[in-house]
Every structure is written in structure tokens, then in C-alpha cells.
Design brief:
heterodimer; A: 113 residues; mainly beta; seven-stranded mixed β-sheet; 0% helix; 57% strand; B: 111 residues; six-stranded mixed β-sheet
Chain lengths: 113, 111
């Protein structure tokens, strides 16, 4: 138990569906992250929020839309995804976005049909 | 962008053997971290290193922050089946906020 929870743990969706991934951290951290992990590839940083403000968007397609309503919660809204978007989506948090240790959630395994 | 070279890519060892893996970078790093990821789960932090030369243990695991600040290694002694998983190194460069992750070392322990 790392103090970072993610729901759902598994998600299957069609290309025309809209779904959301949720992340919650109970560590009192101020920075939260979304990563994509595909088979046999390094972790890809998608978005960073520091004190609820988006500070990084690593050229992520607009079909992925993040939302950070407060420092403890982070969402990733998904719409009109492609099969190549199938991957493990990991949420992480750290004290602030200053190179501090990141703690990961268990991930959401996404399959796009 | 910054690249962390992690080796070996995969290891198959007998239960009870010791394991060693390392991570190198082209830049000077400020922190080095080692994570373990079980299948279908998120990475879990094993050891964090913050000073050049630092040697830190966590049970059967030992990690060191290289003197040059461009490398780190992780040793696992007397491996057991539950050590199976993917081990990632990660770190931050001397200037900047972004974390960089290695490509991972996949460890298989044969009972």
C-alpha cells in the first residue's frame, strides 16, 4: 500500500466510448502525475500537476484530458481512443514537482477495442 | 532527452543466487531511486539515494549512488521466488525537476 489508489484497476472500452480514470493520494503531496506504460517501453510521462496547476504536457493527444480538482485527486478523461492507447496507466505523486521521490499507484490496465 | 541505460535487460537465476544490476547516465544525477514492479501493478519504491557514494540497504537489497554521480547499482542477495519482477532505476539530473526512468531489468528466479 503506497498511499496512492487508482480506479478502476481494469477497463475495456470501445473506440467511441468516454471513460475516466481516477487517482487519489493520501500522502499530503502537492504534485501528481500520469504515466503511460506500454509493453517493453520505458515509462512515458504524460501530465504533471503541481499545486493543482498543470506544469507538463508531454505532447499528449487531445483524446486524453487530465483534470486536477484538488491536490489529492487526479483524473484522466478518455474519449475516442485508439487501440494503440491500450496500456497500463500509472498515477504517481510527490511532495512537490522538484525532483522528489514519486510514489506510484497500482495502475489501470486499459484495453481499447 | 535524458536516457538511463539499465543493464542487464533480463536475468534468469537460481533461487539463492545473488543478483547485480546497474544504471548509467550521460549526465550527473542528483538522486537515484530503485523501484520494483510486479506484473499488473505499479512500481514500488525500494531504495532512494541522495548523495554521491551513499550505500543504502533495505533487507537483502543494497544500492549505491556512484561516486561520479552518473551511475548506480542494485544488489539482491540470496534471491527468493518473490524477487521476480521488473526493477527500474530512476533519478533526477542536477538541474531540473523531471524524473527519468530506466528501461528496466526483468528478473526471473528459478526455484
Amino acid at each position: 500500500e503506497t498511499g496512492v489508489t487508482q480506479t478502476p484497476r481494469h477497463l475495456v472500452m470501445g473506440m467511441t466510448n468516454k471513460k475516466s480514470l481516477k487517482c487519489e493520494q493520501h500522502l499530503g503531496h502537492n504534485a501528481m502525475y500520469w504515466y503511460k506504460q506500454s509493453a517493453k517501453k520505458p515509462l512515458e510521462l504524460m501530465f504533471v500537476y503541481n499545486f493543482k496547476e498543470q506544469t507538463e504536457n508531454n505532447s499528449v493527444p487531445s483524446r486524453f484530458s487530465p483534470e486536477c480538482p484538488n491536490s489529492s485527486h487526479l483524473f484522466l478523461h478518455l474519449h475516442t481512443l485508439q487501440p494503440e492507447d491500450s496500456a497500463l496507466y500509472l498515477c504517481a505523486s510527490s511532495q512537490t514537482y522538484a525532483g522528489e521521490t514519486q510514489y506510484f499507484g497500482p495502475g489501470t490496465r486499459l484495453l481499447v477495442l | 532527452g535524458q536516457q538511463l541505460n539499465q543493464s542487464p535487460q533480463s536475468m534468469f537465476i537460481q533461487e539463492g543466487e545473488d543478483v547485480s544490476m546497474n544504471c548509467t547516465s550521460s549526465s550527473i544525477f542528483n538522486t537515484w531511486l530503485w523501484y520494483k514492479q510486479d506484473p499488473g501493478e505499479g512500481p514500488v519504491l525500494l531504495i532512494a539515494l541522495y548523495k554521491a557514494g551513499e550505500l543504502t540497504s533495505n533487507g537483502r537489497l543494497t544500492a549505491q549512488f556512484g561516486i561520479t554521480r552518473k551511475d548506480s547499482f542494485l544488489n539482491i542477495s540470496a534471491s527468493i521466488p518473490s524477487d521476480v519482477g521488473i526493477y527500474f532505476c530512476a533519478g533526477t539530473v542536477l538541474t531540473g525537476n523531471q524524473f527519468y526512468f530506466g528501461t528496466g531489468t526483468s528478473l526471473t528466479v528459478i526455484p
